[in-house]
Each structure stands twice: as structure tokens, then as C-alpha cells.
Design a protein that fits this description.
Number of helices: 3
Radius of gyration: 22 Å
Helix content: over 70%
Largest sheet: none
Structural class: mainly alpha
Order of helices and strands: HHH
Number of strands: 0
Number of domains: 1
Strand content: under 5%
Oligomer: single chain
Length: about 100
Amino acid sequence: MKKKLQEKLQRALLAAKGICEEAEQAGRDFTDEERVKVAGYLNEATAVKDELKKLEGDDEFRRQLEALGMLAEGAKGRENDAKGRESAKGRIRGWL
């Protein structure tokens, strides 16, 4: 998921940059259409970057839990979610 988001961020930024470079090479300001497109790409990039920050925060929580031994393989009382992944509730119970 993280890699796909990083790729999406890269595409949005490159698209905005391409429009900027095109206007610069032509020696002109953005057209109204270009302004709308650049704004859209920047909004998309901001949203993706926010999502990446959330994922990084999740990763940090996992590292902290792991440091406390909550994600250890032998934890007791584990519970799985619908997809078979261990739930946070199960990890916490295993730690207690």
C-alpha cells in the first residue's frame, strides 16, 4: 500500500511539474486550465502525503508495541480479524 501511495504521489508531482515547465518554456503564465490542473495535482499530492503520514504513524505504533513485546510470536490470547490477521485487541490480550 505504501509503495502504491508513493508512486501516486510521484505521478501527481511530476504531472504538476510538467505543466509548470511547459509554461516556463513558452515564457508565459499558466492558462486557467493549467491552473486548475496544477491545483488538482497539488491537492492530490497533499492528500496522498497525509495518507502516507498516517501509515508511518501506524508503523511507529507497531514498532512501539513490538518493543514492549506485544507483537511477539508466542503471545497468548491472540484474536484474528476477518482476514485472518491478528487483531490489536488480540495482541494486547496476549501481552497482559
